[in-house]
Amino acid sequence: MNNTDSLIIVGAQWGDEGKGKVIDYLAAGADVVARFQGGDNAGHTVVYGANIFKLHHIPSGILYPGCISLLGSGMVVNPLVLLEELAELEKRGITTANLKISEKAHLIMAYHQVYDRGNEELLGDNKIGTTGRGIGPAYADKALRRGLRAIDLADIDVFRERLAQVLPVQNRLLEYAYGHEGYDLEQLVEMYRPAAEKLAPMVVDTSRLLTDKLAGGKKVLFEGAQGALLDIDHGTYPFVTSSSTVAAAAGTGSGLGPQCATRVLGVMKAYTTRVGEGPFPTEEKGEAGVLLRDQGAEYGTTTGRPRRCGWFDAVIARYAARINGLTGLAITKLDVLSGLETLNLAVAYECGGYKTPHFPSSMTDLQQCNPVYETLPGWDEDISRARAMAELPEAARQYLEALEETIGVAIELVSVGPDRTQTIVRPRTFLSHWCGD
Ligand code: IMP
Question: Which atom of ligand 1 is closest in space to residue 305's alpha carbon?
Fold first, then answer.
């Protein structure tokens, strides 16, 4: 099914690009928002008036009562965390009746978090810097064919049966590798019973649901979490997450073919940030980095960790455009750059005496790469009230043009503040059409 009205949105840096805000904005025009990978390692902050929502599993679409929010088969779901998220939304008057969970989504179990933290401890100085949510071990168990799925949780007797099959192995590993006393079957069943009762009616065949919606001409927004450079295959391995974060995963992670959407929007911050360990060529450890962190409030939504900050890296942006097949760009947090006298833009890397516009596959090479910067003029004006490109200062427009030119993909949306209203959508683009222009 070739769906020209649907859209995949992915992070095109190391995550935290401000996808939550962009997806929240575009969800107003969507019938379904479907997540297709990752779990509660993701953190979306959505600001709506005086309300701030911090979501982990649940797509931003949940804030629109007419929109279906869907957790796809490519996700790993922590039922206990999801239960808390639902309770928080319901407490604030948001209906969660439209949340659907794929039968095939895998479960993050309590022991996965023990493995995650234990692995990090054992790795010591070589740790990945994970969110500690149990993401890697849950995907590893899926690949080892000893995972539990949402469909198992929907029937507590099946859940007990599946758990009884895998728990002896898990307990042995917990004890031998991590010095953990292990889990009792009945205690675990009781721990998950409230989640099973609450979530069971939401567990459905989401592939069929999506197929029906697409066939009926409905608009589906596929929401990616994390970012291109955290992709398990194409990211800065091993400093990556454990799922496919690129656009092609929208199909496999939703139970659809690769034609499920023809448009791919890459979200990029106007500068670069990263949490956790791993190479980051444009990282600024000095004054500029501190300024970006302070002005951009760069602290992790999930872990609260300060994010590493640096200049915009067009080498990774071009790479992200290629591996995702980006058809448009959304540039976020442009307002954060106000007040900087000049802006550095990395257009290439200098590696071992030669200059390259390409992102290397070898992490050893990447560690030795230095960015080649172009310097552009900054601007002083507060741009948070701009609602059209023409309302931006000349230097801000020049900066955006430089990004477009070096990446080779058109900018369709610019965000100039956290609120829904602080958004510029370029006229006569796919996104302006999406928004009803
Ligand atoms: P994990 O996904 O918890 O296994 O963490 C692996 C790497 O991905 C670490 O560097 C995390 O900081 C990073 N990561 C995971 N989720 C996010 C996210 O939503 N935003 C930014 N970084 C993330």
Answer: 12
Q: Could you tell me how far CA 75 lies from the centroid of its own chain?
A: 12
104 CA from centroid of ligand 1 (Å): 23
Which atom from ligand 1 is nearest to the alpha carbon of 132?
Answer: 3
pLDDT tens series, the chain, 437 aa: 446 789 999 999 999 999 989 999 999 999 999 999 999 999 887 776 677 888 899 998 898 989 999 999 999 999 999 999 999 899 988 999 999 999 999 999 999 999 999 999 999 999 999 999 999 999 999 999 999 999 999 999 999 999 999 999 999 999 999 999 999 999 999 999 999 999 999 999 999 999 999 999 999 999 999 999 999 999 999 999 999 999 999 999 999 999 999 899 999 999 999 998 899 999 999 999 999 999 999 998 778 889 999 999 999 999 999 999 999 999 999 999 999 999 999 999 999 889 999 999 998 999 999 999 999 999 999 999 999 999 999 999 999 999 999 999 999 999 999 998 999 999 999 999 999 87
Q: Collect all residues with Cβ–Cβ distance below 8 Å to 218 and sequence separation of at least 6.
A: 31, 32
Question: Active site includes 56?
Answer: no
Task: Report the distance separating Cα 403 and Cα 266, nearest Å.
Answer: 13
Token code pair at residue 109: 């179990």
Enter the CATH code of domain 106-202. 1.10.300.10
Out of 275, 305, 363, mutate this one to test ligand 1's pocket (max ligand atoms within 8 Å of CB): namely 275
Q: Where in the chain is the domain with CATH 1.10.300.10?
A: 106-202
Q: Can you name the residues that pair with 38 across neighbouring β-strands?
A: 75
Query: Which residues in the chain are classed under CATH 3.90.170.10?
Result: 7-103+205-434
Distance from residue 42's CA to the centre of ligand 1 (Å):
7
Could you identify the residue written with the tokens 């008036």?
A: 49
- Kindly indicate whether the domain formed by 7-103+205-434 is annotated with CATH number 3.30.420.40: no
- Helices and strands, number each (H, E), in the chain: 14, 20
- Residue 106 is among the residues annotated as catalytic for this protein: no
